[in-house]
Every structure is written in structure tokens, then in C-alpha cells.
Amino acid sequence: MPVDEQLxxxxxxxxxxxxxxxxxxxxxxxxxxLDRIEQVNPAVNAVVSLVPEQALAQAREADARAARGEAxxxxxxxxxxxxxxxxxxxxRTTYGSPIYADHVPRHDALIAQxxxxxxxxxxxxxxxxxxxxxxxTFNPVFGPTxxxxxxxxxxxxxxxxxxxxxxxxxxxLADGSDLGGxxxxxxSFCNVVGLRPSAGRxxxxxxxxxxxxxxxxxxxxxxxxxxxxxxSVIAGPDDRAPLSLPEDGAALAVIAPxxxxxxxxxxxxxxxxxxxxxxxxxxxxxxxxxxxxxGAEVVEVEPDLSGADEAFxxxxxxxxxxxxxxxxxxxxxxxxxxxRDDVAWGMALTAEQIAQAQALRTEVxxxxxxxxxxxxxxxxxxxxLPPFPVEWEYxxxxxxxxxxxxxxxxxxxxxxxxxxxxxLALPAGFTDEGLPVGVQFVGRHRGERRLLAQGAAWExxxxxxxxxxxxxxPA
Length: 475
Hints:
This protein has 475 residues and is α+β, with helices and mostly antiparallel strands. It is 37% helix and 14% strand. The protein has 14 helices and 15 strands. It has helices spanning 12-20, 26-44, 52-67, 110-117, 160-167, 184-190, 224-234, 278-293, 308-330, 337-347, 351-374, 411-417, 448-461, 463-466, and strands spanning 47-48, 79-83, 121-126, 146-147, 150-154, 173-178, 193-196, 216-221, 264-267, 297-300, 377-381, 397-398, 401-402, 423-430, 436-442. It has an 8-stranded mixed beta sheet, with helices on both faces. The chain starts with 11 loop residues before the first helix and ends in a 9-residue tail after the last helix.
């Protein structure tokens, strides 16, 4: 059977099914994506540390296993690139830092291990800001990742390489990590889907505080169905991850039908009083109208997120001390200022401040969980502004309001991080200039299955938005 000329456009589930049925070989699938990467990646710089020969060799072995009738995993033959914050055995992993520019790990991070065991073929890494700090993907090792919808704009971060690669059809699936919006902002900027799951849903063996629920790993794709596919592979418990949930990830693979008819949806326009650029507010008007058209009762509500900023700011800096204080101390000239600042802020914290932040986080969780329980869903804009110029380090003001720290412009995401609830980032519309704008669906505690069903229903309603091709992808 000849390979479809639009193979890279296929959903991941269709690719996986075609490989299992031997309608398309793993070699054909990987080769098609490597060709697309060669053609498009120089413009967007989403995939780094490419290993094409290694990937093709693994694809040939995958086809041999299929020919022998061996059991095939759910991602058998699908090309992926692992975020450059995650270790990959035998493939350079830099964390976006010149300190680790030549670092080649001997072992896979758990998320990479699970993707490989499910049959995925790793073709390289996805670009990330230095140590994942900030929601704009640039670093001194590989440079900036550009937005496929407008090459002069940011793709977001820290999973900006992942989001841009998905949008540009370089990959069918991608992993991400999210502390203050690192899955959600790139999804919004690149018109793709990303899930910040509940703490422990995706087991992690990364170094640092394994008991902290703020930094999580999650799936990204171009549809909710494909997000669920990847989630089913990477979710699940691990004895080294004390917060990991016992549920087998395979149970999350199938999305149940959902209808918004009769649903009560809480709509937050400002995420408790934040400034937003008018272009984002206009798209949120369209979101409210669409939901009403689907039969939902849309109730405008601003959640009480008082204390969320203090809690996030304090606990984020504490995490940076645990993760990067050694690099800052030993290589200060090789670490960017924003990382040095976060470590310094963390080192200055008192025990009382840390205890207060933990207490505030508990209060924010309980208030927001109680609010979500009164409705079927809480929605909010993802980013406070559309994709900004790629030359900026970060936005210094939004709607005329100054931003005091390098991540303050992300508060529409960081405040929801502090709730510890699962959040699904979805495409919502475009500005008049053609820049993507996203929406966040906030679910109930550990409610990923229901959240993905709601996302799939929304996806159907905005299919023309989600199908919009980025400018960089050749016709």
C-alpha cells in the first residue's frame, strides 16, 4: 500500500493502528517524520539532538518484531522526541544549559522509558529554556524555538519545542512538564492540546523533592484522543514516586462521550483579577458563546485564589534551590540570571514563609475544589496575552500593568497550578493577526478521565480552529 502523502497529518491513533495492521511500516512512518523535520525544523528549531540513524535502526527492528508476530505496544513505531529536561539513554540531554551541552545520560527518565516500552521510537529531543525556567523557549545551546504560526513569535515554554513540533507536524505526540504553565502556555501559543495532570498521575523519578505536587509531567498532542493515548502509556505508579497514583494508565486510554447540554460551566475571565490583553478577552467572549450554543449554562464566576501568588512564588523558589543551587554555586557565569534569581529568592526564605506557603496552597486547593464541585467544569483563559515577539525574554507588562518577576505574566497558569487540580489546555481561537489563543479546562480532583471527555466535546465544537494549519507547514 503506498504511503499517504499526508502521513504526518494523521492523528497518532491512526498512525498506531496503521502500523499494527502493517498498512504502514515503522520505517515509513519514521522516515516521513524525519523528512518533515529536515524540511521544516530549521525554521522553527523545535527538535534538537536529532538521531536519525539510531531512529531508523530502531524502526527496522520494530518492523521485524511485527513480522515475527510479537506483541506490539500502543505506540509501536510512532516517532517521538523527548523534552530536553528528561534524560534519554544514549541521546544528548542538555537541560538547555551550556553546563550540560555534551551530557549523554546512561539511563532513561521514567517517562522516556515508558514511551520506549510502549513501542515509541525516539528521534531526538524537544527544545526547552535553560533548566525549564520561564515560558519562552530559548537557551544558549540551541537558540530559540519559533512559533509555527508566526516565526517572529514565541512558541511558549518550557515545553515550547514539544508544542511547536506538534503544530508543525514534526511529531504526532510529545511529552511535557508543567510547574507554572509549561505545558499549558505552549499549547495555547501553538494551537495544540496539553494536559497538566493531577500530582502523581504520571510517576516521576526526577531528582528533587518527590513529595512536591507542583511540578508534574504530562502529555501533549493535536487532539484529546491522542493526549489520552499518550497519558495511558506514561501514567501509572512507580515505587520511587511516593505521590504516584495506583491506577493503571491503560484505563485512561478511552475517552467517554460527553455532552455540554444541560451542563453548568463556571467561566473565569480574569483568574481572580489578572490583567489580560484585549485580544484574549475577545476570544473568551467567543468561548462563552460557543458553550452556550452547545446547551451549557455559562455562569461568570471568579474563583477566590487569594494566597495563590504567595504560595507559588515561595514554593517555586524553594524547588529551584533543591534543583539548581549546585549549578548556580559552581558555574554562576553559565547560569542565566532568572535561574540565579530564583535560587537567591529561595535561599532567603524563612521556615515561617515556607510553612505559610504550604498552608495557603492547602486553602487554595480546598476553595477551588469546592467551587468546581458545584459546577461541571471551570474554564479560564490560558495565557494573558497572545504569542509575543521571539526576541523578548519575557513580557514586562500586560495591558499596561508591569510584571515584577520573569514569570509574573504566567499567573493565569501559576494560580491554577496552586489549586493542584488537573487542567486541560485547549485551542480556543485566533486573534485578528492569526495568533493562537487557548482556554484552560479545570477539572475536579484527580478527574482526568472526565476532563478529557469534556475536552473532546469542546474539540468537536471548534474543529475548524483545531484543524487550522500553521504557516510554516508547506502545503
